[in-house]
Amino acid sequence: KQWYQRRVAITAGNTTHASIQKEATTQFYDFSKSNTLLFVEELENIVNNNDCPPDFSSFLSIFHEKIEKHFKLSKPKTSKRNFKVNPWITDGIITSVNKKHDLYKTWKKSASPQNAKGDPLAYQKYNNYRRSLKHAITAAKKHYYGKHLTNIEVIPRKHGI
After folding, report:
1. At the N or C end, where does the chain have fewer CB atoms within 10 A?
2. Exposed, middle or buried: residue 41 (CB in 10 Å: 0-12, 13-18, 19+)?
3. How far is residue 11's CA from residue 18's CA, in Å, rounded to a whole number?
4. In this prediction, what percent of the chain has a pLDDT beyond 70?
5. Are the C-beta atoms of residues 99 and 128 closer than 8 Å to each other?
């Protein structure tokens, strides 16, 4: 087994890694890089075009309106992939997982009565992407735990417990 898969209680301060529950979190806003860039661009347009209101309360209401426009999700997202449970998951990994799902759907939609298993090229593309994503996730876990290993105290379990 890999060193990060061994069953040990890892403590950082008072919180043990084993005690963190996989609770579903609900996300109402998406502060992704693309949304942030659009938000900043629109605020810069307001300031550059001298459309900025004279008083702060009016500016604040415009600011909140732009936050709602660019960041608020139309439907709240519930996920167990949160930072406490999976701290190695990056925006790039999430994007790659979504692409993998799209490749899978494309492959499954290519099935027909003549070709029950679907398009072999679509399957090969999906399968290669799935494998490379699996390696990327493993590398991200190793990198994260290798980087943080010096900051934690490892307490091995006693036998018979």
Report:
1. C
2. exposed
3. 9
4. 73
5. no
